[in-house]
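Weekly sync, protein design subgroup
Attendees: M.S., D.O., the rotation student, P.L. (late)

Item 1: inverse folding check
M.S. brought a backbone from last month's batch and wanted to see whether the design step gives back something sensible before we order anything. D.O. pointed out we never logged the input encoding, so this time it goes straight into the notes. Structure tokens as presented (213 positions):
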């Protein structure tokens, strides 16, 4: 599943400028982000349910996950065809390609800032995802189901925020929303750090953090 995500995710985002006219890019990206995080919500809930049902039969979990992977592959066949990208010889030196890519990105200020923003978003998202179980168990002292719901809350916030960003951007890519979102994420995280055994307050902070993300 990790290999499939590593192969498909960049292609999913990279195909948007080829599938959509410039005026629809922001809204198209909003729908992609919303559907991605709605899938994360459903997957997070189903993952726990599937494990509870088949924890004594791990091969069955493997079969279910493989089935989901095959369905995703079949769905990808419905995406419109795009022309091949610029061909480049394969190299066994990933560091060299990485250094070249970083130089090219740094030369384009808008792209460089975009990559920094994406990195910031996924760093905070991954960190919060790892901390939510600890927040639920050790700070809020909630049941595992309620702790899982906190993960769903932040994903719902991201989905709604994605739609809002697409709407506010109109027919162009509005980079001015990025610093607003970054500041909002920071404020949401700092306020969350001060939450003391209030489940509702934690959920509101996570929803706000996700929305600004």
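Designed sequence read out in the meeting:
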């Amino acid at each position: 599943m990790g290999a499939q995500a590593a192969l498909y995710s960049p292609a999913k985002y990279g195909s948007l400028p080829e599938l959509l006219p410039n005026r629809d890019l922001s809204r198209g990206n909003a729908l992609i982000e919303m559907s991605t995080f709605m899938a994360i919500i459903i997957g997070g809930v189903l993952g726990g349910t599937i494990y509870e049902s088949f924890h004594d039969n791990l091969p069955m979990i493997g079969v279910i996950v493989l089935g989901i992977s095959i369905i995703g592959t079949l769905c990808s066949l419905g995406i419109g065809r795009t022309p091949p990208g610029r061909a480049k010889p394969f190299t066994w030196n990933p560091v060299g390609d990485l250094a070249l890519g970083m130089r090219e990105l740094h030369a384009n200020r808008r792209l460089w800032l975009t990559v920094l923003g994406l990195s910031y978003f996924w760093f905070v998202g991954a960190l919060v995802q790892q901390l939510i179980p600890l927040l639920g168990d050790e700070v809020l002292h909630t049941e595992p189901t309620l702790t899982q719901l906190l993960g769903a809350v932040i994903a719902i916030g991201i989905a709604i925020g994605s739609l809002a960003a697409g709407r506010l951007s109109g027919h162009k890519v509005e980079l001015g929303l990025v610093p607003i979102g970054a500041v909002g994420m920071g404020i949401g995280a700092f306020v969350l750090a001060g939450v003391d055994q209030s489940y509702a307050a934690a959920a509101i902070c996570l929803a706000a953090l996700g929305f600004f993300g």
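Discussion: The chain has nine helices and no strands. The mean pLDDT is 84.
Action: P.L. to compare against the previous round before Friday.
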